Amino acid sequence: MTKATHLVALLQSHLDGDDEQFLTVAMQAAANEARQGHGKLAQQLRDMVDGARAKKSKPSRAVPLVQPRGELANLVAAKYVDTRLSGMVLPGTLRERLERVIVEQRQAFRLRQHGLRPRRKLLLIGPPGAGKTMTAAAMAGELRLPLFSVLLDGLLTKFMGETASKLRTVFAAMAETRGVYFFDEFDAIGARRSERNDVGEIRRVLNSFLQFLEEDESEGLIIAATNHPELLDPALFRRFDDVIEYALPNLEVAREILKARLSTFDTHELDWTRASTEIEGLSQADLSRIADEAAKQTLLDGRERVETKDLLAAIAERRAAARH
Ligand SMILES: Nc1ncnc2c1ncn2[C@@H]1O[C@H](COP(=O)(O)OP(=O)(O)OP(=O)(O)O)[C@@H](O)[C@H]1O
Ligand SMILES: [Mg+2]
To answer: Which of 134, 179, 208, 239 is 20 to 30 Å apart from 217, CA to CA?
Structure first.
């Protein structure tokens, strides 16, 4: 018999609208049946879950994305992404904060019924390569929303007034099409009002942004990211529901990133402690590339086992590249 705990977990995940958890519990129930010798039933459950997953993994293709047209085409790039939060290695507290946004979005309807607003305006700050852009993609992937990346080149023009009116066009699109709207390199828009030379125009742009952000009641996510939070106008911070800080990886996160990227290889003989002494100061992006380089070397040598020297060589190369 399927355990009562599985039924409870199934119902809970259904109520939470968490499809992935629902299927995970179904797989656990299948494993439970298999252990009790109900092989046929177990197989039937697994097939159903696999079928549902296969269908789910390509829903975006079934719904053609309406590409931005007219003026908007120069202001945002639209795409569907498959990035998931589970594909990211994150310290516990950061993962919890990002998951909370997803849960609140999934439960938005219930929250709104009680006059509550789900978190949806996020500011991501932290050093290059620490996963800010990847987070925006993962949010879109988790929520099955299109990712609209705002194109700074299109937005920022040297003509007075145009940028503010373009910003209005972007915010109007948010109200029209639910999605994740991503403002990368946000300091270009959000720098302190006093620190600019061409004060008139840029102050206008920032003021417009502040006003649009405050007034915006659309249903998607607005995510801004910057490596330079110290440049941002202080008035910005409180307009966001959450300010989320990224940092370079600690040793544990660093090792997890390497391991995850090398998961299809034999890494038993790797001297992680030796490698760990070399990875200080490298970003998540550096580490992913290092793992990929080590993997390539292993494959090209016709080996299945990644060796410590592969990692060390890739690390040294990355460091050398970073110095240029
Ligand atoms: N937390 C993470 N887990 C796994 N891989 C990561 C993580 N963070 C970054 N990466 C890897 O590094 C790459 C670059 O990260 P990303 O572009 O998100 O950094 P960023 O913070 O936006 O940097 P920048 O400030 O330069 O734009 C990702 O595509 C991914 O391969
Ligand atoms: Mg980025």
So the answer is: 134
